[in-house]
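Hey, sorry to bother you again with one of my protein questions. There's a protein on my desk that I can't quite get my head around. No rush at all, and the record is pasted right below.
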Amino acid sequence: MAGRRVPYDPKNADLLCYAAAIPSFLDGSDTPRAYVERCLETIEALEPEVKAFVRMNVEGAREAADAATARYKDGRPLSVVDGMPMAIKDVHETEDMPMEVGSPVLKDWRSGWDGAAVHALRKGGALILGKTVTTEFAFAAPGPTRNPWDVSRTPGGSSSGSAAAVGARMVPAATGTQVRGSVLRPAAYCGTYAIKASYGALNTLGGFPSAPSLAHLGILAGSLEDMWGTAWYISHAAGGDPGHPSLNGEPSLPPASRPRRVVRLETAGWDVTLDETRAVFEGFVEELRSKGVEVAGRADDPEVEAIEHKLRELPEVILLMLTYEGRYPLAVYADRCPELLSERVLERVEVGRGLTPADYSRALDWCRDFRGQWEAMAGRADAFVTLNSVDAAPVGMPVGNSIYGELSSVVGVPTLNLPLLALDAMPLGVQLLGYYRKDWELVGIGRWLAEA
């Protein structure tokens, strides 16, 4: 693979779908061991240029694949993820590999335990194939990962390696985490499906602490089936975060559900979005209308205009919140080993030291009010659509503009990346947002959009 693998076409991107292979495991025409060997062949061919992984446990994955193969032969798989090769973002603890979070501060650090989601995946028979690259502390200096569709471009961040591994067909699914679009934007850049579930629905315990009131676990996958099945399984096997319920709905993909009315949002990102990107998105909106879906924007509905007005204030609010909540442990690292931190981390620590509880209290009040404003739209629109990035993945290693990803983390609502569009022969994602604890319903709408 030199440069671009193939020009991206959303209609035949042909990423992996583990759910589609399960019938062949049950009838014996294929096995989880053979499946993971095919994944390893792809990794061997593409990893030298894509650089998605920081650690791998190949022999452990093979042993787990053999055990899964025996269970399928007996007709007794443990779960929908039994035998599935999974990549784990290197912000989760794993008993068999270090957690370094993209920083020399934590080089070779091990807890010796699995985080909650990883533990659940192992108990369900998933193959924990390796740890994927993240940016420094999941927000700062980028890692070495490249975009699998064009290795001169960024995969996005901070879930860089997870998105690239799925987009390169190395694995069918991977975990990611998000505070400012760190699941959705890499998925958009690398052409994968992704879900950032309702706040708290997927257990985040056993990983690097990052702005707890904004932090979400997400799943990136080559198919809607694997995206939803994996997320639902983790949510029910590990539970949600303390104080939060698991995902609603069923473990199988919901039926396609045509929305009656959707709201198209510009957000603060529209002003900095390239004209070419705008044109592709406007084409998508017109296609929705041609299929009988009412699409309302800020000029059509005063309540939408009010939301758009709040979205102009959101970037300042979220930056204050994540800086205030992220002071620990970054301030400790800055005191002990500043030479191991990037300038961006050191700058954030200094800004955090200047914030007060009163500043944070005002930001929390803003978020509470905005969430109420958002939920008040539930009787007026089935979902919201916008972009996931201001452009296709840019050339170079900066992880891209996070502005479109900030909304969903602050509101805490379920959000999808749908890899339905292309620009410059690269993926361009549609962001689909719903309402708190209505993940099942949103995925049904996402399925209709993907199939329509």
